[in-house]
Amino acid sequence: MLLLNEQIGLHSQWVFPYHSQPVTQTATRAWRVALAKAGIPDFTWHDLRHTWASWHVMNGTRLEELQQLGGWKTLTMVTRYAHLSPEHLARVADNARPVSMTKL
């Protein structure tokens, strides 16, 4: 993550550039081979953007901040990419539990 964080703002046009250019078919072929060897079906470069946005939101990045980091024009687009895992929702479900009246 540290290496990825160092790249913020350096490549404004592409999310995953290679020598400041978009990823080529050669890299895409290598990507598919790596996924096959790892036993990961139906996963694309674009899925990494969803993963990245989801991890940000689940670690506390505000949607407005993520909008700027991801280059989205609207918050609606941010919510299309940032997903909350069932495990995350289970952890935060108790945040709104009533306060015990005996503690007041």
Report on the structure:
The chain has 104 residues and is an all-alpha fold. The protein has 2 domains: 1-43, no CATH class; 44-104, no CATH class. It is built from 6 helices and no strands. Helix 4 crosses helix 5 (75-81). The longest helix has 14 residues, at 25-38. The protein starts with a helix and ends in a 12-residue tail after the last helix.
Give me some keywords for this one:
2 domains; elongated; 0% strand; 104 residues; 53% helix; single chain; mainly alpha
- Quaternary class: single chain
Q: Note the run of SSEs as H and E.
A: HHHHHH
Number of domains: 2
Strand content: under 5%
Nearest-integer average pLDDT = 85
Number of helices: 6
Overall SS class? mainly alpha
Give the N-terminus to C-terminus distance in angstroms.
43 Å
Quick overview of this protein structure:
By secondary structure, the chain is an all-alpha fold. The chain is built from six helices and no strands. It starts with a helix and ends in a 12-residue tail after the last helix.
Topology of this protein?
Blueprint: H1 2-6, H2 25-38, H3 45-58, H4 63-70, H5 75-81, H6 86-92
Helix pairs in contact: 4-5
